[in-house]
Amino acid sequence: MVTAMVRGASAFCHEKYFILFMAKSDVPRTMAVTMQEAGDPYTQYLEETVNLSTTNQSFEFLFNPALTDPTNKLKFFVGLETNCLYIDSVVFKEVDLTGIANIEDNLGISVYPNPSVSGKVTVEMESGERIGSIELIDLQGRLIKTIHPEDYITEINVSTLKEGMYFLRIQTGKILVSKKIIIQ
């Protein structure tokens, strides 16, 4: 069995964490994703199975460890198959719930097309309310650009960006919403 590991992602008891990554395979297959303690008793905080295809897909998981572990490992179990597997843009990040609306789907904010293959992404407030600002952020948390739309709908040029996952932080009135976008 082949295992790829990512070390150095300390997890603290009762905090929430996101694991985000992109992956594809030369042929469709499954892959197990686990977050586990590095030593005995090898407690697993997260265990998921993903179905990979031949095109890049983004995966994200939320987990909440029951104990603090500075030595945990993120593992990708790929089995005995010899086909190539590609894992990219791995992010292990504590969830910052301050200021992020959990009701974002009810706010009527549309982001399309997603994934974007045209080099453009449209952000639209279905209520007709003016968008205050939009920040485009990469997976490392770097601000790529800030847009100050003049209307309830705006188009963002993403043609110069590398393929991958990004976040849009959309400010509308007093609410801040994060949306994930994929650039292909």
Q: What's the layout of helices and strands?
A:
Layout: E1 2-7, E2 17-25, E3 29-36, E4 44-52, E5 57-63, E6 73-79, E7 85-94, E8 109-112, E9 120-125, E10 133-138, E11 143-147, E12 153-157, E13 164-172, E14 175-183
Antiparallel strand pairs: 1-6, 2-5, 2-7, 3-4, 3-6, 8-9, 9-12, 10-11, 10-13, 13-14
Helix/strand structural class = mainly beta
CATH superfamily of the largest domain: Galactose-binding domain-like
Element order: H for helix, E for strand: EEEEEEEEEEEEEE
Major sheet: order of its strands? 1-6-3-4
Rg, rounded, reads: 18 Å
Query: Can you give the mean pLDDT?
Result: 76
Per the CATH scheme, the topology name of the largest domain is: Jelly Rolls
The main β sheet shows up as:
4 strands, antiparallel
Low-confidence stretches: 1-8, 97-106
Name the shape in a single word.
globular
Number of domains: 2
CATH architecture of the largest domain: Sandwich
The number of helices is 0
> What's the CATH class label of the largest domain?
Mainly Beta
Provide the helix percentage.
Answer: under 10%
Please state roughly what percent of the residues sit in beta strands, choosing from under 5%, 5-15%, 15-25%, 25-35%, 35-45% or over 45%. Answer: over 45%
Please give the number of β-strands: 14
